[in-house]
Amino acid sequence: MNRFFILLLLVVILSHAKAEDKGYRGSCPSLGKPCNSNKDCCPYGERCLSAGEGYFCKEDPGP
Which UniProt keywords apply (predicted)? Predict the structure, then answer.
C-alpha cells in the first residue's frame, strides 16, 4: 500500500513538472539553451541574444 502512494506521488510530481515546462518552454534556460526574451531567467551575466537564428542565453557583451 505504501509503495502505491509513493508511486502515485512520484507520478503527480513528474506530471506537474512537465506541465510547467510546456507553459514556459523550459522554465530557466542556461548557456546555449533557447530563450524567449530578455525577461527569461538566463543565468547572472547572460542575456537572451539572437545571432540571426533564434534567441539563446549568452554572455552579456556589455554596453
Answer: Ion channel, Ion transport, Signal, Transport
Q: What are residue 49's DSSP bridge partners?
A: 56
Whether 59 contacts 46, CB under 8 Å: yes
Q: Are 29 and 54 in contact (CB under 8 A)?
A: no
For 43, the 3-state DSSP assignment is coil
Answering whether pTM is above 0.70, one says: no
CA distance 48 to 58: 6
Spatial contact of 42 and 29, defined as CB atoms under 8 Å apart: yes
Q: Is 45 helix (H, G, I), strand (E, B) or coil?
A: coil
